[in-house]
Specification:
This protein has about 80 residues and is an all-alpha fold. The chain is built from three helices and no strands.
């Protein structure tokens, strides 16, 4: 994904929502996050591979999942 065209930055990770391909990518990231919630609820271990340049780690839903669900679960494990 191109940050210049999608307008994805650390302060605006969802980018320009008026572009259909940006909106589709955001839906896909929400679905991936939802599947990770399901895996965590079932007590499964999963690996999500992302390139270092990916903006996925900045998405609000993913950040909430990592910070509130995974991190808290890890501390209580």
């Amino acid at each position: 994904m191109c940050s210049g065209q999608a307008q994805r930055f650390w302060y605006a990770p969802e980018g320009d929502q008026s572009l259909p391909w940006v909106k589709s990518a955001n839906v896909m990231s929400a679905r991936v996050t939802l599947l990770c919630y399901l895996c965590a609820a079932l007590g499964l271990v999963f690996v999500l591979e992302q390139p270092g340049s990916a903006k996925f780690g900045d998405m609000p839903r993913w950040r909430h999942f990592v910070e509130q669900i995974c991190w808290d679960s890890w501390l209580n494990w």
